From TrEMBL:
Residues 637-709 form the Secretion system C-terminal sorting domain. Gene3D superfamilies: 2.60.120.200, Collagenase (Catalytic Domain) (3.40.390.10). This is Choice-of-anchor J domain-containing protein. It comes from Chitinophaga hostae. The keyword rRNA-binding does not apply. The lineage of its organism: Bacteria, Pseudomonadati, Bacteroidota, Chitinophagia, Chitinophagales. It comes from the Bacteria.
Length: 714
């Protein structure tokens, strides 16, 4: 028993140590992006070469010119948590204090840097302030709070992209050219942080750093050995171009961090080592610089950036992120008395589905006085102006939704420009924020049959639309793969590398012209990365939806995933490209969902990081109902028959219970329940083995019956 107890204790301490070790996702996230998009490797190499040359130039300037100017960089802190109160105002301010000390070599523990390296201590002369004005020049405390689902975490994938968009449960970045964005959240995988540096191929709205909330600042929710704010110091070092001090070469000594005054180092360092510490790359004193902010030691043992690292960071700041140096984000704005602003036009935007528009705008009072009246104008393209006189009582820095007079539009693409005039009956004190613009289009409706093989270069095809909420991977045109052609529509789930993201490829509005029935046919090819025999796996899903209200709602008529979807029956770890024989023709009966009115079809991909899905040769057709069926409501055919008989209903009566066939002797030959009625409102009977003669088809309802005579002949 004692032996087992000791094992349990040892296991606990081992696990506690493992989970307590610093883990930065910056290099790993970049490596994953290169794996998904190999062309990024060339960009990263060019960026590294540029910075190597730049930091040399920076060092020469430092020797021959005046001390670099002190810069104050506006910071916006996005608290993205299920309980945003977990990160307090004091905690945020404590982190800013740490950054301002560490980046100006003013941290008290800098004295603990060994004497041999004291001359190498660098001062970036970069300070950080919480933003005092928003991108729209309104007062702010520099903190944005977004409440997530309980326990939600965000991965380091794509530099923590999911935390950086409101559409994926995160917080949208403020203008990267004016602010350093810091997202503070729960990070999955035991990572403490990840950076998305400028110049490395990340979308600009993803640039910034993401920090584990328990390693942010020096008070509040911080815990463990990462309680002195050095995680943010480390990740912002990445943001300004620094690599890990060991070069991320897994101990091979083959790759350096690109800084001449940091000793060559084999691998990361954990804990608080005793100086000097030697390793396989530097095996003589003074050893490795484990107290550098770009190593993995505990917060209490991180003390310095070197002058070489400072040169690199200043080069990035002054040449790649130079707009931060001139940002006015640290300067509080001054409100004028009367300032009516239009934040945006919320409707119409994008594709509209009917020709009547009712513009909706967001009116904001950016003035110090309450806003009680303002005139709002709008114009379509270069057409006439339409005015609306708004009255109300809108407090300073509050906003309201305003619906403007409607208008009819013709088939075309439009710019809608709306603007305010005369707030409270006086000239606007700031006319730079008066105007908002939206772009929308009204396309010609399609009639049946509708066919699309994606042969033309334009994508989406004319009249079609895309829904891509995360602005990442979505449907695209494949120019060299198709079913019987060289083109198709494709979504690259293998490269998407995300979970449960939805992307729609949407048809034009289709007028079925009162067709009795409508059917969809299309070719599909798909594969998976995981073993198709896996159970419990989250698969990519392809769905077909019908929407009759311009995508506000939809009815799912087709949904396939994993083994039911794929056309290559084994796992594919490379990008799937179907052969000519790896396509399947699928069909969907749309009749019940379209209600004989105008509709659209959405081909929906739900990605779960498996592999590519292709669709091609889309055909939507209508079928007319037999006039006798429409007139009588039920049809028995063929009549006479030589064996197979169909009993088809125009609409299935709610009180129908069963359908039976009797011979002339009153014997029951076959019976089918109403619940057996399938696609096309049809029941099938087989009289092949019955003798020729007269039969009776009896329709049995709840309180009545109907009999139809049937002849069997050969």
């Amino acid at each position: 028993m004692r032996q087992n107890f000791i094992i349990i204790i040892l296991t606990f301490f081992y696990c506690a140590t493992a989970t307590a070790q610093r883990k930065c996702g910056t290099a790993e996230a970049l490596q994953q992006r290169v794996k998904e998009k190999p062309s990024l490797q060339e960009l990263l190499q060019k960026n590294e070469t540029r910075m190597q040359l730049g930091q040399v130039q920076q060092r020469l300037h430092a020797r021959t010119e005046a001390t670099p100017q002190t810069v104050s960089i506006p910071v916006v802190v996005h608290i993205v948590l299920d309980d945003t109160s977990l990160v307090t105002a004091a905690q945020i301010l404590s982190q800013l204090d740490v950054l301002n000390r560490d980046y100006n070599a003013a941290n008290p523990d800098v004295s603990q840097v060994p004497a041999v390296w004291q001359p190498l201590i660098g001062n970036t002369r970069i300070s950080f302030c919480l933003a005092q004005r928003t991108p729209d020049d309104e007062p702010t405390d520099g903190v944005v709070k977004v409440k997530t689902a309980p326990g939600q975490t965000f991965s380091i994938a794509n530099g923590g992209a999911d935390a950086k968009y409101s559409s994926t449960g995160g917080s949208d970045a403020w203008d990267h050219s004016r602010y350093l964005n810091i997202w503070v959240t729960r990070i999955s995988g035991n990572y403490l942080g990840v950076a998305a540096p400028p110049g490395t191929g990340y979308p600009v709205e993803q640039e910034g750093v993401m920090i584990q909330y328990t390693a942010f600042g020096t008070t509040g929710s911080v815990s463990g050995v990462y309680n002195l704010g050095r995680t943010a110091t480390h990740e912002i070092g990445h943001y300004f171009g620094l690599k890990h001090i060991w070069g991320d070469d897994n101990g091979s000594c083959s790759i350096d961090d690109g800084i001449t005054d940091t000793p060559l180092q084999g691998d990361n360092t954990y804990g608080c080592p005793t100086f000097p510490k030697l390793d396989n790359c530097t095996n003589t004193a003074p050893g490795i610089m484990f107290m550098n902010y770009m190593d993995y030691t505990d917060d209490a043992c991180m003390h310095l950036f070197t002058t070489g690292q400072v040169d690199r960071m200043r080069y990035v700041l002054e040449n790649i992120a130079a707009s931060l140096m001139t940002s006015n984000g640290c300067v509080p704005p001054l409100l004028v008395n009367n300032d009516a602003s239009l934040v945006n036009v919320t409707d119409p935007v994008g594709k509209i589905c009917n020709n009547h528009i009712t513009p909706v705008v967001t009116l904001r009072n950016r003035g110090a006085n309450p806003l009680t009246a303002v005139t709002i104008w709008y114009q379509l393209n270069n057409g006439p102006l339409t005015s609306y006189k708004w009255t109300g009582n809108l407090a300073s820095l509050k906003q309201a939704t305003v619906t403007l007079p409607g208008a009819n539009v013709a088939i075309n693409s439009y710019n809608l420009k709306a603007y305010t005039q005369l707030p409270n009956g006086v000239p606007d004190g700031n006319i730079t924020n008066d105007t908002a613009i939206s772009h929308f289009r009204y396309d010609a409706e399609a009639t049946l049959p509708l066919e699309q093989g994606f042969e033309n270069d334009s994508f989406p095809p004319p009249g079609w639309d895309l829904y891509n909420p995360d602005r990442s991977f979505t449907w695209e045109r494949s120019r060299d793969v198709g079913k019987g052609s060289s083109a198709s529509a494709l979504i690259r789930n293998l490269g998407y590398n995300t979970n449960d993201q939805t992307d729609d490829l949407i048809t034009p509005v289709i007028d079925p012209q009162s067709a009795d029935s409508v059917f969809l046919f299309f070719d599909v090819a798909a594969a998976v990365y995981s073993d198709p025999a896996d159970t419990g796996n989250s698969w990519d899903t392809l769905q077909v939806l019908v929407t009759t209200d311009c995508r506000q709602t939809g009815t799912i008529l087709y949904s396939k995933w994993g083994p039911n979807l794929i056309t290559r029956q084994h796992a594919v770890q490379t990008e799937f490209v179907p052969t000519a024989g790896e396509w399947r023709r699928d069909s969907v009966d749309l009749t019940a969902a379209i209600h004989k009115g105008k509709f659209q079809i959405a081909f929906r991909n739900i990605s779960n990081s498996e592999n590519n899905i292709y669709i091609d040769n889309i055909r939507i057709v209508k079928k007319e109902v037999n006039p006798t069926l429409r007139e009588k409501g039920v049809l028995v055919n063929p009549n006479p028959t030589d064996g197979i008989v169909w009993v088809t209903f125009y609409q299935v009566p709610e009180d129908l219970q069963q359908v039976s066939i009797y011979n002339v002797h009153g014997q029951v030959i076959a019976t089918r329940k109403a619940a057996d009625i399938g696609v096309g409102n049809r029941l099938t009977f087989n009289l092949v083995n019955e003798p020729n003669g007269v039969y009776f088809v009896k329709l049995i309802y709840r309180n009545r019956a109907n009999t139809i005579k049937l002849m069997k002949v050969r």
